[in-house]
Amino acid sequence: MAVSKLKKLRTAVVTDQSPLETMSNWIERYTNYLRSECHLANNTVQAYTRDLVHMQEWLEGRSPTKMTIRELSDFISFLKDRKLAPSSISRHVVAVRMFYKFLQLEGAVTENPGELLATQKMWHRIPKVLTPGAIDRFLASPKKWESLSIRDKAILELMYATGCRVSEVSNMTLNNLRMDERYCIVEGKGSKQRVVPLGQRAIDAIQEYLATLRPALARGKDSLNSPWVLLSRSGKRLRREAIWELVKRYAVRAGIDPNVSPHTLRHSFATHLLAGGADLRLIQEMLGHASIATTQIYTQVDNSRLKKIHRQYHPRA
Fold first, then answer.
1. Which pLDDT score is estimated for 304?
2. Per mean pLDDT, which range of 5-9, 112-116, 226-230, 255-259 is the poorest?
3. Which domains does the chain have, with CATH numbers?
4. pLDDT digits (tens, 9 = 90+) for 178-205
5. Residue 218: what pLDDT?
6. Beta bridge partners of 185
7. Quick one: which of 238, 61, 92 has its CA closest to 156?
8. Catalytic residues
């Protein structure tokens, strides 16, 4: 029977590592491994790389090849102390597991202590959601007299109408828009495409932006043939960091919690659909979730339908 490479490495004797094999070197090689061997999406590679930079900070010069499961558990405590979201901590755990698998393949370790790190199911927290009234104030916050208000209005309407991730909005191209058919094509994680309907308000806002402001933004020689829907002042693709900033700015103007983020609009999109009676499987498809379990968290947010059914049918309600 053929013996796998990992199994051979587990029984092999690990030689002393070169002093040049610093954590920075390992991170660089790991990043190349994720791209060339695992073929992960660029956003995923960047996220896992950032996670390992956090690990590098925690290591403080110690070698990752010498870590035990007890020590790695302290890394999780380090992340919690930094007030990272539970979902971010779970992703760090995945990144560490993959990193040690890579170290095994490189012959730097024989065991993968990351396999023993637990991703606690109870880490999931209930998403922050805006009320329909807060959404109305938020979407009305860009003012006509502001130079980029037409673009910003289109961004906010698009995000709430589709539930797109901020990176999906930033990377949306003109070819992705099907205004006549009232939908857009969204390229999500792992380059997977999905179709998401567009409401009339979003269509109106996007069409106004495309007809008036976008041509002015695309006048530069480097942006005349730009494929991106959303452009910056300089005519380049609007970065997701810029979208984060404008979302927070308009949240403050609308009198909403300043901790609102683009993902809050995504959560609100899903929760409001669920409250309106949409099927959970359809919401999963529109959000681009690989697992229905991820979408089910919104059932914890909106229990209005459950309360209504309980009042209507329970004899002691």
1. 58
2. 5-9
3. 5-123 (1.10.150.130), 132-310 (1.10.443.10)
4. 999 999 999 887 778 999 999 999 999 9
5. 87
6. 195
7. 238
8. 165, 189, 263, 266, 289, 298
pTM for this entry = 0.64
Which residues make Cβ contacts (< 8 Å) with residue 252, sequence separation at least 6? 258
Length of the chain: 317
